[in-house]
Amino acid sequence: MPAKPAKPNAGGQVDFGHPPAAIEFWRRLVRAALSRHSPTPFYVFSALPIAERITELDQALAAIGFLSQSRDLPAFRSGAASQRAKIICRHWLSCKTQPVGPLLRWWRKQGRPIEVVSEFELRAALAEGFVPQNILINGPAKHHWLPQFDGAPGPLPSQGSTRARLVGVQASAFPGDTLKREFQQTGAEARLGNEAGAPSLRNLAVNFDSPAELAALLPLARKWNWRCGVRINTGEEFDPENPGSPTQFGFRPEEAVSALKQLMRASGGGEAVSFHLRTNVSSVQVYQRAIAEVAAVCRAAKFSPRYLDLGGGLPVRQVLTRGGKVFDGEFGLHAFANMLRQSAKQFPDLREIWLENGRFVSAGSGVLVVKILDVKERCGLRQLICDGGRTLHALTSLWEQHKILPAPERAGAPVLTAVHGPTCMAFDQLARIPLPRSLRAGDHLIWLEAGAYHIPWETRFSHGHAAVLWHDEAGLRLARERQSFENFWGQWKTWGD
């Protein structure tokens, strides 16, 4: 379904749809950061927009009868739970979308679990105090790195970290297991078996991605009582650059039937089926068709899952395509919730629906702040040279438009303006939009919706990484220093010649 064009505002500029309160919220935080002489470029991330987005989604789900995870809700039901029990919708933090330490700690304190897709992300989750039962592992080729945790030598990922001392480790969101007790033991006692150094990963949730991965990891799954599932590559999941071809992820439906049967024979019954689509799914019907395909696979395998993992994909808000179209024009949360209610009927033993929405949840939780260094005018175009831009900080600007706020606010007629970063690349263009002619060197620009996929795609092209500030209920704090030259260049080994 084609995206709808954004409507222009009264001044003829594109209206991204931000509420005035959101604009003032970010202006206030940026003013506070600049008043502390924070060196640009820098990111500001806040927990508050994430909490608001989760609440909004939970309200839509609750309106048609789903339960959401909260501190007063039993976070895990066994397969023997009543068929009449309401289904829980559980939000997993997509670590790859926004791998920011303070965010992981804040999320853990809410009692919520995390989804990881690599060795480093798993180690980060453990270092920040997530217990294994609150960690879901997705992604391809896990069999090439996950076995190293089975008694491999080396320090516990949390060892020496004040953040992850045993007193601060998250209590399991799935009561009735031994994980909490294991992590309350001493460091030596908490290691796997008698091997020195590897963390206990009992009761992880793992979605297998291929036949080779299933064969390699199934012995570990039995040994450590993993909650296992299979990722299914549905017909709705395709290569965005080649829509006629599938992505590289998961089992094809016929492979998934065999995998589920193998999983049931090996462990007495698997627990989950999973699918992921893509970012910015355009309509609820896409999910509906994918779930129906997954249900058909389950029927063919005579498999009745307790958990249905939908991955992410809810479309981002207040962001436009480079052609000026909105991403979420045809997508409604209430329609999504109603679709889930109807689709869940295809799974008689379903206890939970897992959601791993990255961009929808976190895009609005951050901004990028850059300073104008130089101004040029040529061929009817005004060019602003800034200390941050696409190449270093905002790769998404290659295919998206985000709202840009001048700081301080500037009046005057808008003129076509290209916003460039500092790198020696013509590619380094953050935006090409009307901006006030009164903008000048020394002013700042605030690039909104920088909370998703900005830190993961940040580069060190001729410059170091930007500073990061974090905001939550405790206020605004520096979370990461701007990268120094010593850190930038000191990574290279020397041989004394």
Structural class: alpha/beta
Q: Please, how many domains? A: 2
Under CATH at level 1, the class of the largest domain stands as Alpha Beta
Number of helices: 12
Order of strands in the sheet with most strands: 2-3-14-12-11-8-7-6-5-4
Major sheet: 10 strands, parallel
Q: Which ranges are low-confidence, i.e. pLDDT below 50, for 5 or more consecutive residues?
A: 71-84, 152-169, 174-197
Binned, the helix content reads: 25-40%
Instruction: Find the count of extended strands (DSSP E, 2+ residues).
Output: 23
How far is it from the N-terminal to the C-terminal residue, by CA? 62 Å
Global outline: globular
If classified by CATH, what would the architecture of the largest domain be? Alpha-Beta Barrel
Alpha carbon gyration radius = 24 Å
Content of β-strand: 15-25%
CATH superfamily of the largest domain: Alanine racemase
Mean pLDDT: 86
CATH topology of the largest domain: TIM Barrel
